[in-house]
Amino acid sequence: MASKAGDNPDSLMALSTAFCLRNLRKTMCYLGDRNKLCLRSDVFLPSEICDKLVNTYMELVHTDSNFKPQDGFFQLFSDPRSTRLTRIQLREDIVQDRDLEAIGKQDLIELHLTSCHNLSARSLRTLTSFRQTLVSLSLFGCSRIFYRKGGAPLAFDEEEEEEEEERPASRQALDTDFSFQGFNRLRLLNLGGLPEEVDVEGLLKPLPALTSLDLSGVQLPRAAFLAQWKERLASLVLYNVDLSEELINTVVDVHKELKHPIRALLFFFLFPSVSVLPRHLDISREHTSKFKMTRKTLTAIVQGLVNLVSLDISGHIMLDNCTVPHFEEAMGRPSIEPCKSSIYPFQELKRPLQFLGLYNTTLCNVTHIPAYKVTGSKNEDQVLNAIEAYTEFRPELAHRAINQLFDIARIQHCSQLLRALQLVIAALKCHKYDKSIQVTGSAALFYLTNTEYRSDQSVRLRRQVIQVVLNGMEQYQEVTVQRNCCLTLCNFSIPEELEFQYGRVNLLLLKILEPARQDESIQRIAVHLCNALVCQVDNHHKEAVGKMGFVKTMLNLIQKKLQDRMCDQVMEFSWSALWNITDETPDNCQMFLNCRGMSLFLDCLKEFPDKQELHRNMLGLLGNVAEVRALRPQLLTPQFISVFSNLLDSKADGIEVSYNACGVLSHIMFDGPEVWAMEEPLRETVMDKMMAAIQSWDVTSRRNINYRSFEPILRLLPQSIAPVSQHWATWALFNLVSVYPSKYCPLLIKEGGIILLEKVLELQTSHEETKEMARKVMEQCENFKEDPMETTR
Description:
two-stranded antiparallel sheet, 14 strands, repeat, Protein zer-1 homolog, ubl conjugation pathway, Zyg-11_UBL_adapter
């Protein structure tokens, strides 16, 4: 059998790591003094495991709502004699100064900090602890790390940290003491988003050996300072940096010296392992700028940087035409050979580029592009490349690309489904707090998970979609995100595919429905989902959801619709959901009565006398209430009995309303004449009316009802207290096994119905008509056992 998209299982390492993190006290740790989490003395973990633990911990904190951050987690890695950390990635506000201080004795090789807004200059001091071993460092989006909190000295007690975090940012003072002096092994540095106040030239001066530098969004004091890395820099990222001719010339010209044969030979002799000239150059932008890219500039870059394998010029407007005429370009199949390039400057390339960023430029639309991977908006491949390239550090571009993927999935056809889903899921996980990503990502998921693509998706992949959708619903109460997420959930088989997150999804939907005045479309979708979730699930699920406030929430919606005098889908779905959640769950039935449910039933009946679907749902619910013996006395009032009696004559929805009304009365009659304390209507009169109604029904009627168990019906069979109740129960079984034999014959046999029907035949109080139906039911089941092939449709 062919595997489906995203069907690869997690590795044993991944599963074990997640299990340990979810069960720290049962695996690696114990609670010490003052409930402090401590590592067991017999635990010694190598760097491969420690790195995995920390990085997975960060992922779980950001993507799994059931996983809560552990106080003192990083303290577990404070002693390098028992735990070794080498390569870790920390992100966003969960990371505190004390967390970095806790691992200050580790010999870190790679430390990537992304958007850690709670780090201050205290963490800069901690960075110096890693200066002898650190090779790769990213401080992307960590602008506050260059400031002292409240202008305070760097050293202060741990107890003061929370108080310091509350102090206003205006009191933060720039730290001028930090220096990269002594970071002799540092080769890769990302300072994206560095504050303007920081002297970037002075900061980087002690780092002459850098081979990769990212200065995204940084104000450069002067172009010439980049010249200090002319013999080493292999990667330079200047995304959203204000470019100038001088800066471009500096980037290109600092390497021209190496074209002199004697200098080049000397360089190779002194630095044989260093790759000459930048191999990766990124001068892309989010928005247009004063600087205009010309054919001459692009040619200079290509000619000057002869070892270039990756170039990103996204967002630039070409000042002059640098593409071949259209009639020439249209000749032949698309090619990546430089000599055939539709972009003149790239004809100078010695070989195709590995990566070329042309997103938000007109150049991405040409036919012949000399690169293996291109970002742009021309086709699905370019769009997916853009999402992949820009998600982590450029959500503003990823947002646009995901929006274009949304159009592809909606209007055209997504041919790379697995890749598309994985990229959107990754973007939603990475930018849980970015509203624009959540809006476009959830919209794209709606179309990528619909019926057209469903058969190609594995259970595991679809579960990942559900989890990121629920993350979005948790984080944002905004209308668009909520609507997109709810619509996406509608693409799944409910409740089966949502059962692994059953409690969570119900809580989120109930939270959506809490406001008295909710967006009408979201309300309708959420109620539909709620109804589907409580249909065909085990009773313990229903009871759990009932305790969440499900019954009260539905009744509040009904109350609001009554006030608006509106019977719409929300009203009907709400009653249907109550019908489902009260099925065989007495506690939920009790909640319905306690929350004035019967009063709302009467009001709806009066306000909407011609709404057949509404009447069916309401009577189905009351049938569930009537099955609970302890609750039946609350239905035994002249008002309610008169209403049920009158509904016996209803022709609404075929026989359903009349059938359900008769079912309610059948259970009430089963309690005997001694509980009938009212003078009007008379018990005999009601029973006569019930019998007349049953005799008027067509036994071949197809039903809009679903029984998971016959137990409530079967208990009415072997009794002589109320023959009419017995008659109703027998008719119900006769109808169901006749019309749906393959479904209900096995159920009736399994639950011992045949034995009970035999007792009906033995009772003298049973009507002859009842006995005749009982024989036909038994005969139908016997025939089914002999020939289980159903021919009816």
